[in-house]
Amino acid sequence: MTQALIFDTDPGIDDAMALFLILASPELDLLGVTTVFGNNGVGQTTANALHLLTVAERADVPVIAGAGAPLARVYKPSAARVHGEDGLGNIHLPPPARAATPWPGDAAGFIVDTVMQRPGEVTLLAVGALTNLALALQREPRIAEAARRVVIMGGAVFSRGNITPVAEANIYHDPEAARAVFGARWPVVLVGLDVTMRSTLTEADLAQLAAAGRPATDFIARIAPVYFAAYQVFGIEAIPLHDPSAVAYLLDPTLFETRTVSLYVECEGRCAGQTIADLYGVWAPLPDVEVCTGVDSSRLVSLLKHRLSA
Length: 310
Ligand code: RIB
Ligand code: CA
Description:
By secondary structure, this protein is α/β, with parallel strands linked by helices. It has a single domain, classed as Alpha-Beta Complex (Inosine-uridine Nucleoside N-ribohydrolase, Chain A). It is built from 13 helices and 11 strands. The strands form 2 sheets. A 9-stranded mixed sheet has the order 3-2-1-4-5-6-11-9-10, sandwiched between helices. Strands 7-8 form a two-stranded antiparallel sheet. Helix 1 runs parallel beside helix 12, helix 4 crosses helix 5 and helix 10 packs antiparallel against helix 11. The relative contact order is 0.16. The mean pLDDT is about 95. The structure holds alpha-D-ribofuranose (RIB) and calcium ion.
C-alpha cells in the first residue's frame, strides 16, 4: 500500500537526497512539499525545493512556502559552511522555473487542509525546524488525530548534538515548536543523530552514485563536495545521511531499532534544543516518542544507492 506523504523540508544537501529518494520510491505518494527556514532562509529553501523538483522532472508536485522564523525566537542562519551559501553546494543555480503554489495559511494551511481531507492517511515527514507543524496544530488541533503519524529527522537523545554540544539543529532552530509537536496526540517517530550519524556515504559511494548518470545522481555529485568538506573538518571522511534516514524509516522500518521514551525538550538557556529521555519518569507527565536507537547502516546505504541509481 502506498503511503501518502507531505515532506516538510529546508533544502539543504541532505534534504535534496531525501527528496530524490522519496521520488524514487513507488511506495510513497508525495502530496506536496512544504518549506521552512533552517539550512537557509525560507525564500532560498523554497527556491531550492522548486529547483530539485525540476531536476527530478516532477514539477507537478506543489511546493508551498512556510515559516521564515521560529515561533518565539530570532532565526540566525548558520549552515552556509555545511550546505553552501545557497543551501545547495554553491552551484549558482538560476532562479527556479516556476513559483511556489499560493495556499491560504501557507504551509501550515496546506498541512491542515490535506490532513483533514484524508483522515488517517497522511504521514508528515519533517526534516527541518518543526515550525510549520506547530503552526498547523495551532490552526487546527484536530490534525493530531487525523494525521497517520509524524516522522521527524531531529534530536540527539542518546548522543551529543551537532549545532551545540547538546542540541541537534532542527530541534534547536525552534524548540518551542518541537515541544508542541512532540506533545500532540499523534504518533511521533524520531530519526535523530543517534542513528543518522551512523549511516554515511564515503567518497567511493559518491563516485558510484555519480557513475549512475541519472539526473538526481548527477545533481548530488554537483552539490555533495561542500557537504563532504564540512565534515572533513571534523575528521569525518564521509557524509551523514540525516534526512534520507527519515525517508528510509518510511520505506523499511526494520532497518531501525527503536525505543519509546518520555521526551523532554529544553527551551531555556544554553541547553535549548536538547532532547532528553526521562527514563525514570521523574519529570512526568511527558509525551511518549518512539526514538530510533539503532540502524543497519549498510542496508540503509544500499537502499539509498540502489533507489537513486535505478
Ligand atoms: O541536524 C541535521 C539536520 O539539520 C538535517 O535536517 C539537515 O538538513 C539540517 O537541517
Ligand atoms: Ca533538513
